[in-house]
From TrEMBL:
Membrane-traversing stretches: 20-41, 53-73, 101-121, 133-158, 170-192, 212-232
Stretch forming the signal peptide: none
Descriptive protein name: ABC-2 type transporter domain-containing protein
Keyword field: Membrane, Transmembrane, Transmembrane helix
Record bears the keyword Transmembrane helix: yes
Length: 251
């Protein structure tokens, strides 16, 4: 915990310094989200549009985890800070994963901007059948996204390939989250990493998901988190055996 607190403080300072940049990125994300939202509202009406809104919010969590956690390794590598972190006894993956709380800022801002656009279109995405269950599903997704970001960061250390070339979830999961799915198979879909909580969040908009799906996403979250911890430790041991970090930077 003594090592985590300075890292969180470091990331908090960085958020303050780069707030305008985060705001700019959030506006860009909200414009892309609005395109899908307008299409959903125009084609299938407000009920589906509300589901799409929260599916887009779920996608924003996943996408931000990819570049804010996985991409942080690229940043540390370009600055030459991987070795100093390692020498000080701080895992580079832990340093990246501690940025998890930062995900809430761009996700919240882009969702807020998109919410304002929704009001202009004439529907309210906050009209939800199960708001507390929706919040729980997004919290579970945030935990899974953090684990995914740590796995991505570890893979960058292992392969020396920039995270932008490794992160496939941001684009692939967007299409999968927006696609229609049989509600009767939600119990099965709930076991899918990252996708499961997103589907549950969509179900919370128009109905109340059975409690069994939350057991499924919880099990997946535990398995994914344990895998992320084990994988990152194995990668760091392997990196030390091969005598240091390697990197390929994109400019």
């Amino acid at each position: 915990m003594r090592k985590i607190k300075p890292l969180i403080w470091l990331h908090a300072i960085r958020v303050r310094r780069y707030l305008l940049s985060i705001l700019s990125g959030s506006v860009t994300d909200s414009i892309w989200m609005a395109v899908f939202l307008i299409g959903a509202y125009s084609s299938q009406g407000p009920t589906y549009a509300r589901e799409v809104f929260w599916a887009l919010a779920a996608w924003s969590i996943i996408a931000n985890a990819g570049w804010m956690i996985g991409g942080w390794i690229d940043y540390l590598s370009e600055l030459g800070l991987l070795e100093p972190l390692d020498f000080s006894g701080v895992s580079p993956v832990v340093a990246a994963a501690s940025r998890s709380f930062v995900i809430a800022i761009p996700t919240g801002l882009s969702s807020l901007f998109t919410l304002l656009i929704s009001f202009q279109l004439g529907f309210n995405p906050l009209e939800i059948s199960s708001p507390w269950l929706l919040a729980l599903s997004l919290l579970i997704l945030w935990t899974q996204a953090t684990a995914y970001g740590a796995i991505l960061a570890s893979t960058v250390l292992l392969t020396s390939v920039p995270s932008a070339l490794l992160d496939i979830a941001a684009l692939a999961y967007l299409g999968l989250l927006l696609a229609n799915y049989p509600a009767g198979n939600l119990q099965t879909f709930a076991f899918l990493p990252l996708l499961g909580p997103g589907y549950v969040a969509r179900q919370c908009v128009s109905g109340k998901p059975p409690l069994g799906v939350f057991l499924a996403v919880t099990v997946t979250t535990i398995v994914l988190s344990l895998f992320a911890i084990s994988y990152s430790r194995s990668v760091e041991k392997l990196v030390k055996k091969r005598a240091g970090y390697r990197a390929i930077a994109l400019h």
